[in-house]
Structures are given as C-alpha cells and as structure tokens.
C-alpha cells in the first residue's frame, strides 16, 4: 500500500509535538512518519543524547531537521535547530517547542502497518515494534 501524505501548517505559539501527536491521533492510522518540516521556533525543548532531563532554549531558531515515527502509543521524534549564528543543536523532541512564525509539515501515514512500543527488556525502554496488518484490521 502507498503512503498517504497529510500536510499541515502550524501557527505562532503552537506546540510542535502536541500538534503532531494530535494530527496523527485524528488520522486514526496505525503507523506514520515525518516526511518533511520547515519552520521556526521561539522555544525549543530538547533532550540531548544520553541525558535524563531536557533543556529549554529560548530565542529565534530555524528548524533544520525534524524526523520521527508515530504510533498509537506515541511519537518518537528528533529535532535539529540552528540559531542566528548558524550553531546547530539537536536531540529528542519534547513538549514545549513553540512555533515562531510557521511550521510547515508533511506527515506520511502508512496503511498496512501498525507501530507499537512495547517495553524492550534489553534496553529498558519502550521500543518500536513493526507489524504488517490486513486492510480489514486497520
């Protein structure tokens, strides 16, 4: 089955992760991914690699990259941003990222697939499980 694209534009002040999760939940799809995103933020909340806590950054940032997958269990997304000097930071996207002027996003819904996130005893985290499903199970 083919990927079904869904495009959305977020407005100033909207929370990037909250709106992405809302969009996916409304689709009632079993699996999805981010195809592309361009935009800007005034607040970025990122959990950097191997850190238990997130960092909150304020200013004006360009969204350089946004990648991720969606399941009914939640989203797993990574964000890269750059500041006015071109310095780039990235990590795990957290709630609290506020759109500055726009965020133009295309999400791909994946018919015939279901993503879940059961606890992985090897890592201790809920990790992606990919299932192929029949059209009548969607």
Automatic annotation (TrEMBL):
Annotated PPC domain residues: 1-131
Name used for this protein in its record: DNA-binding protein with PD1-like DNA-binding motif
Superkingdom of origin organism: Bacteria
Gene3D superfamilies for this protein: Hypothetical protein, similar to alpha- acetolactate decarboxylase, domain 2
Pfam families with a match to the protein in the record: PCC
Residue ranges that the Swiss-Prot or TrEMBL entry lists as coiled coil: none
InterPro entries: PPC_dom (IPR005175)
Organism, scientific name: Pseudodesulfovibrio indicus
Lineage: Bacteria, Pseudomonadati, Thermodesulfobacteriota, Desulfovibrionia, Desulfovibrionales
């Amino acid at each position: 089955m083919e990927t079904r694209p869904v495009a959305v534009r977020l407005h100033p002040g909207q929370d990037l992760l909250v709106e992405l999760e809302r969009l996916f939940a409304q689709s009632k799809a079993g699996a999805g991914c981010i195809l592309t995103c361009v935009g800007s933020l005034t607040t970025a909340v990122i959990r950097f690699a191997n850190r238990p806590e997130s960092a909150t950054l304020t200013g004006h940032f360009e969204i350089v990259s946004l990648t991720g997958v969606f399941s009914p269990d939640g989203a797993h997304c990574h964000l890269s941003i750059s500041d006015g000097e071109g310095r780039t930071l990235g990590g795990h996207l957290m709630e609290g990222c506020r759109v500055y002027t726009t965020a133009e996003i295309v999400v791909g819904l994946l018919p015939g697939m279901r993503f879940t996130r059961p606890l992985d005893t090897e890592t201790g985290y809920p990790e992606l499980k990919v299932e192929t499903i029949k059209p009548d199970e969607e």
